[in-house]
Amino acid sequence: MTAEARGLVYLVGAGPGDPGLITVRGHQLLRVCDAIATDALANPGIVDGARRANPAVQVYDVGKRGGDRASWSQDDINALLVRLGREGKRVVRLKGGDPFVFGRGSEEALALAAAGVAFEIVPGVTAGIAAPAYAGIPVTHRGLATSVTFVTGHGDPTKDEPDVSWASLAQAGGTIVLYMGVKTLPGISRALLEAGMSVDTPAAAVQWGSHARQRTVVATIATLADAIMHAGLSAPVITIIGDVVALRDQIAWFERRPLFGRRIVVTRASAQAAGVRDALLELGAEVLEMPALRIEPLDDARERLARTTFQEYDWVIFTSQNAVQIAWDALRSAGRDARAFAALRIACIGRATNDSLLTHGLSGDVVPARFVSEGLLDALAARDDVRGRRVLYLAAEGARDVLPDGLRALGCDVDVISLYHTTPDETDREALRKAMSSSHVDAATFASASAVRGFLDAIGAALARTVPAISIGPITSDAIREAGMTLAAEANEASVTSLVETTRAFLTATEHAAPGQH
Length: 518
Ligand code: SAH
What we know:
This protein is α/β, with parallel strands linked by helices and 518 residues long.
């Protein structure tokens, strides 16, 4: 088979914004493809998730933005897809909503067909259905609307030769869903009214539909353009015209979630932080995430592990999922496997680390109740097979000395191998600083004292002190006070559930500053 024959371009709908609204097939393809070419309207979180699951993937951000940034023309995008396809790559061309609904996906398909590059289409949830649904507006309803028309407002009916027959749409009587029509709405409304549409016809505009920052404005066809201007809505906006809009009063649900419209920073990228993030998103909050730390394996660690005679030790200690992963990669590249640890007892810091070990067929003999170094040391000290033994400690560079020092005090002979170091991602930090200074943040959650330090490091003390801090427990609260930040609330119990519940209680008791629904 030639390389050319293997290339395949998937035109994939990313859905309207909520990352949960991509199809299962789209999600799977993102995890196995060689390259992603993404739109400005596809939620960047979807691409971030794909990058985490598929670190080798090449990402091209071909969002066609106006302004001074070098932007991609449709011809450039077509040429890129053809080139990648010819190189034999599996490419996901990720497009906001559905690729074939005002998405120019069909033009890309035609270019690929002309170039003889194989392609497939993966439809998506289009904004014209999802944005109304998230605003509580069904596009059809028995007795109110038996048809729906998706129409582009791109051309101004008062200036251009109209491509759209607004008069027949006004007479058809179904729901009209308008894409790309914020600026041209005054002219479109006039054309519809002139064709006999009732001035009382309800109309709504939904900006950033299905995103946490969704905003909805409801008026009538005669007043909507003014109402949009007054509220300051700008693209991306879907406009819905028709009697179905009246059902929003009863059906609106998304904007009634308890934390809708609130912005919260979740510090520290970790499995635990992901739990906090997901729970806050479910409550309707907009979540800004702390930049993940880059994990970089240390070269000499690989060599040291490859040379280690594991039988010389009685215990091995893993203190993170990363340590397990990197140790495994090193072992595998030295042609070894789980049997290297066969005769050893294993200690790990917590359940997540133990779960990682389980995926390699091993399970910790000691997993402490408190997932910190002190907790592990106490658990080891309580046993009668630790004192005076030989211990191999696999750690992050710069890890605290609590464990090795404590074990040495128990008469153990401890060797430490630093497997990796962590460095912050400067671009991500800058993005967080920008997001935080450009608009109000209601709270930041902290699940550890080190998360407090990481937050200060990432955005600087001045900005950090502007945000009410929610803490998981007393030690974290001390760190927050020491940093000169405002401790807004402390969880009753050191758990994700309690941290989320405390955040919710704090925010529902405080004034809502962000722009709300209309
Ligand atoms: N292929 C896309 C549409 C692309 S055209 C789809 O199927 O949804 C771009 C227009 O889509 C925007 O100007 C806006 O009218 C609409 N749009 C896309 N995402 C939106 C969103 N989350 N909320 C409101 N409108 C959106």
